[in-house]
Amino acid sequence: MKQLTALIAFLILPLTIIAQDTWVQDPYHSNLGFTVTHLGIADVPGHFGDYNVSITAAEEDFSDAKITLTAQTASVDTRVQNRDDHLRSEDFFHVEEYPEMTFTSSSIRSSEDGVFELTGNLTLLDVTREVTMTMIHRGTVENPMADGAPVAGIQITGTIDRSEFNLGNGFPPPMISNNVRIKADGEFVIQ
After folding, report:
1. Which residues make Cβ contacts (< 8 Å) with residue 42, sequence separation at least 6?
2. What predicted TM-score, i.e. pTM, was given to this entire model?
3. In the chain, how many domains are there?
4. Residue 10 domain flag
């Protein structure tokens, strides 16, 4: 009977225990950026300086990645103080009322080697919408500056429609594009 129990445990254990790693961004080698088009003729970039990203994955290629992001909206930075203050106001991010935006992935699908369609829920100004982005696993290497610890490069790109989140509704597309291009680059280390 003992041998039968041990055999069953041996067969079931691999199915019930999946080793997952939790990866967090290296803040010195990561960026959460965006770009809008102003007056239909010029791209204006910006980024958020205060955010946390966590990736949980069991597969080395991140094909089963689950991603969560929380960004502090008051950390928006476009390198122009007056514009940043306006973006923090009720006209845009309304940071007093909505201090955070969040993203939680719900699915990931491989489209080609190292490239994935990442779908999840983005919450901004208390509006939640499903968005799909492109995620690229740019590789995992040993970092010689950190005793050979693994570091993974992840890039996420895509476009959201700001009007779907009631962001800057008083400023029509001829002034500021509804399309906001997202480009997030990061190096991630195991927590």
Report:
1. none
2. 0.87
3. 1
4. no
